[in-house]
Design brief:
Elements: H1 2-14, H2 19-29, H3 52-101, E1 114-115, E2 122-131, E3 153-166, E4 170-184, E5 190-194, E6 197-201, H4 203-206, E7 211-231, E8 237-257, E9 264-268, E10 277-287, E11 290-297, E12 311-320
Antiparallel strand pairs: 1-3, 2-3, 2-12, 3-4, 4-7, 5-6, 7-8, 8-9, 8-10, 10-11, 11-12
């Protein structure tokens, strides 16, 4: 049968048939070499058993022929695996960014340790006043010169809050904050540091010099320890209270005016006998991103014997982050 097909193809080519017609005829009429003339599949002939040496030789001979295809398949599989791995890495990096820059939601809010889920972190402004103590909001008799104007406005910057234990509803937390205070005096006086004691300088009043500004500036780095309670449908209402302590990181006085004694702005960066540390009590409450706060520092502003024994109290409003 095979000889007949070959003969027919030769005749077609000799008669001028095209290669395409010859190929179609050959394809339509041929059958597999494994088929019998009756159309039934032929049974493979039984092969004699091979020895171990013959099998090894057969494997070595077949390896070069199949190696390129296997290499090509392995390369494609390696590319696919690298692509899947890159996708997984991309999804992991994206989810990690979300964890860093987005507040936790759902079950993430119930973790034992939570960042940025309390209501301490934020920025705010406050009025910083000086009082004798919580029972006496007036100044001592020897410190009346420290009476302040309404421009005694400070700034609070709290970049971090950190829940130590608890859940979203009630928890113990801490954080880190910076407090900048401006004690603006309503008299034309300045402060000077003499022989280890801070005393008022009355020379401007005595000479009739009008000061447009006279203030004491202090800066602290604070760490709180607060118990916070959140409630409401989305935990929007909050209240927290506790202790706060801080390290003084800066202080100076500043006066500004016109005249031969001042002639512009003058600053004095002396320590003025101020305490290096302060501590007190704080209360914060609010709704959503708006908070109100009151802080009272139990420790006097000056060291004992270095200045008037007055204490600081802050009342302010903040934007909670």
């Amino acid at each position: 049968m095979r000889n007949l097909l070959i003969l027919a193809a030769i005749l077609l080519i000799a008669s001028g048939a095209t290669a395409q017609e010859t190929a179609r005829l050959f394809t339509a009429t041929t059958f597999s070499a494994t088929d019998s003339p009756s159309g039934e599949p032929r049974k493979p002939k039984a092969q004699p058993p091979q020895s171990a040496q013959q099998k090894a030789q057969a494997g070595e001979e077949a390896l070069p022929a199949t190696a390129p295809a296997a290499g090509q398949t392995a390369g494609t599989g390696g590319t696919d695996k690298r692509g899947e791995r890159n996708k997984r890495d991309g999804r992991f990096i994206q989810s990690y960014k979300v964890m860093l820059f987005k507040k936790p939601e759902g079950k993430e809010q119930t973790r034992r340790v939570l960042w940025r889920d309390g209501r301490w972190a934020g920025v705010g402004i406050h009025y910083n006043g000086l009082v004798t103590n919580l029972g006496n909001f007036s100044l001592p008799d020897d410190a009346k010169y420290l009476s302040q104007s309404s421009k005694s406005i400070g700034v609070t910057i709290n970049p971090i809050d950190f829940i130590l234990l608890g859940n979203r509803k009630i928890h113990l937390m801490t954080g880190l904050g910076f407090e900048l205070n401006n004690f603006r005096f309503d008299q034309d006086i300045a402060l000077k540091y003499e022989k280890g004691v801070t005393v008022p300088d009355y020379q401007y009043i005595e000479q009739g010099v009008k000061l447009s500004k006279s203030k004491l500036f202090t800066a602290y780095m604070n760490i709180p320890l607060l118990v916070e309670f959140q409630t409401g449908r989305n935990h929007n209402f909050f209240i927290n209270a506790g202790l706060v302590g801080g390290l003084r990181i800066g202080a100076h006085t500043k006066i500004k005016g016109d005249g031969p004694l001042v002639g512009g702005t003058a600053k004095d960066h002396s320590s003025f006998g101020l305490r290096n540390f302060h501590y007190g009590y704080t209360l914060n409450f609010g709704y959503s991103n708006i908070g109100f706060n009151v802080t009272y520092y139990h420790s006097p502003l000056w060291r004992e014997g270095a200045g008037p024994q007055v204490r600081q109290i802050n009342v302010g409003i903040s934007l909670v982050l």
